[in-house]
Amino acid sequence: MAVKIEGTCDPKFKRVRDVFAGHFERGLEVGASVALTIDGKPVVDLWAGHADEARTRPWTRDTLVNVYSTTKGFGAVCAHRLVDKGLLDLDAPVARYWPEFAQAGKDKIPVRMVLNHQAGLPAIKKALPFEAVFQWDTMCAALAAQEPWWVPGTKHGYHALTYSWLVGELVRRASGKSPGTYFRDEIAAPLGLDAHVGLDPKNDARTATIVPAPPTPPGEKLGEGGVEYLMQDPESMAAKAISNPPLSVVDPKLISSRAWRAAELFAVNGHATAWSLARLYGALARGGELDGYRVLERASIPRCYTVQSEGPDAVLGAVTRFAVGFALSTPNVPLGPNPHSFGHPGAGGSIGFADPVANLGFGYTMNKMGASALVDARAMSLYGAVFESL
Q: Between the chain's N and C termini, which has fewer beta carbons within 10 Å?
């Protein structure tokens, strides 16, 4: 039986709807949403499928889902806003705001390096218990004590989980608010976003459950950046980057737990709708302001897409490019044809990004996981259809 595609779509972007429908017809989705704004105005807002693997709960416009590293964009915009407010200096030492961080030779690491993945802190060497992931002070103390894995600034490697506490603690120290509270008060609520870092229990009933990706068939090459790829050597820096504390970030039971949803982890556990991602990045694409609320100063937007680190990633094994907190296009995975697009993908498939040249914000969320931590093929085909339609 064909899946019903719901929502609205400007006729100009019929190609996006066709591609979205095709994903369901080919069995690539369980439930998903895609949204697009042009000059801050919604022109695509589509959803379909189910919020659970058993297909008992319909996916709606307001279905929330864990968007994994797409959350890093939420942390990045909070940091940029604090810079605009004069509360955070990208070139100041992290230790100015977080004195304990100065241990183990880290006294001179500037704020920008924890946002552009050059700080050398993608993993913690000391074995931590599972429950540490939910203990803010424990994780911050472990990172403060950790010696960098490389000389900061000499290379970059994806801070897959540690970004949560590195960026989150800077936001907390600079603003006096917890990371999720600052995001809610300064970004989500004023823009009217249905996006959360630290999910209230009242939203559990409308939150989708994750459907894990199938394992890679024997003999098939593992995709760079995926969980299986990173865990090939459990004692490696890459493996520790996603498994210390010892947890599986793709375990549906963990991701559906109340403890996970309540945590405020800028790296991995934001919950959002596609239209909220499109609206947030739509505001940034048009100079940082939407409907009378200024998220960032117009002059600050180039900071969001100016390259800070690029090349072979010491953790993921693939080529990555980062600005201050945001992921950028790479030759193999462009965020459209224009040079200044910025945003962040999440493991399994979700993504949000802004294109200031085309003045667009794009969001895609889903619950059927793909295998890569990099940009998913479904997302690329959808935003490819967007640019074909312009």
A: N
User: Among residues 280, 91, 282, which one has the least CA distance to residue 188?
Assistant: 280
**pLDDT tens sequence across 205-255:** 999 999 998 776 665 554 555 666 676 667 788 888 888 899 888 888 999
**Torsional sign, CA 256, 186, 72, 7:** positive
* DSSP string of 105-125, one letter each residue: GTTT-BHHHHHTT-SS-S---
Tokens of 19: 């591609």
CB 377 within 8 A of CB 370: yes
Query: Any residues with CB less than 8 A from the CB of 378 and at least 6 apart, and which?
Result: 23, 28, 29, 32, 349, 364, 366, 370
Q: For residue 80, how many C-alpha atoms fall within 13 Å in the half-sphere facing its CB?
A: 26
- Which active-site residues does the annotation give? 69
Whether 8 contacts 275, CB under 8 Å = no
- Strands in 189-246 per DSSP E: 195-196
DSSP notation for 310-329: EEE-TTTSSEEEESSS-EE-
- Spatial separation of the C-alpha atoms in residues 279 and 285, rounded to whole Å: 10
213 DSSP β-pair partners: none
Q: Phi and psi (nearest 5°) for 271?
A: -120, 135
* Both structure tokens of 142: 């472990």
Q: Which residues of 323-355 are buried (b: 16+ CB within 10 A; e: fewer)?
A: bbbbbbbbeebbbbeeebbbbbbbbbbbbbbbb
- State pTM to two decimals: 0.96
Q: How far is the C-alpha of 281 from the C-alpha of 134, rounded, in Å?
A: 29
Q: Tell me phi and psi for residue 275, to 5 degrees.
A: -65, -30
| Cα(2)–Cα(296) distance, integer angstroms | 43
Q: Which helix (H) or strand (E) holds 31?
A: strand 31-38
- Site of tokens 């190609």: 15
Main-chain dihedrals φ then ψ at residue 88, nearest 5 degrees: -145, 135
- Listed as ranges, residues in the chain with pLDDT below 70 are 1, 216-229, 231-233, 373
Alpha helices (H) in 176-246, listed in sequence order: 179-183, 189-191, 227-230, 237-243
What type of residue sits at position 77? Answer: V
- Return the exposure string of 15-43: e unless at least 16 CB atoms fall within 10 Å of the residue's CB, then b: bbbebbbebbeeebbbbbbbbbbbebebb
